[in-house]
Specification:
Layout: H1 3-20, H2 29-51, H3 62-92
Length: 93
């Protein structure tokens, strides 16, 4: 898959992850896009390690999309946990 297709996949995966996990996140659309792109990499890596698969071969393959979305969701949850704890600690001081 080319770099442009991979970036598009990541951007869309980030938007889908945000739609599946709505909430007030610190950061805007740029952070969501970055989470999607990095989440697509994370999802592809996890699919390769756990299932011995190559999900990032084809753009229109369902395993590519599922791994990218799951990776973006995982990364979004981690981001919320880290950024949410930072925001709470500032308010309590």
């Amino acid at each position: 898959m080319g770099i442009i297709a991979f970036l598009i996949l990541g951007l869309i995966a980030g938007a889908i992850a945000k739609a599946l996990l709505p909430g007030d996140d610190p950061g805007g659309i740029i952070i969501t896009m970055l989470i999607g792109v990095v989440g697509a990499v994370l999802g592809g890596f996890l699919a390769g390690v756990l299932f011995n698969a190559e999900p990032m071969d084809e753009f229109f393959d369902i395993s590519t999309w599922l791994s990218a979305i799951v990776g973006a969701i995982i990364l979004l949850l981690i981001y919320r946990a880290v950024a949410g704890n930072r925001g709470r600690s500032r308010n309590t001081v």
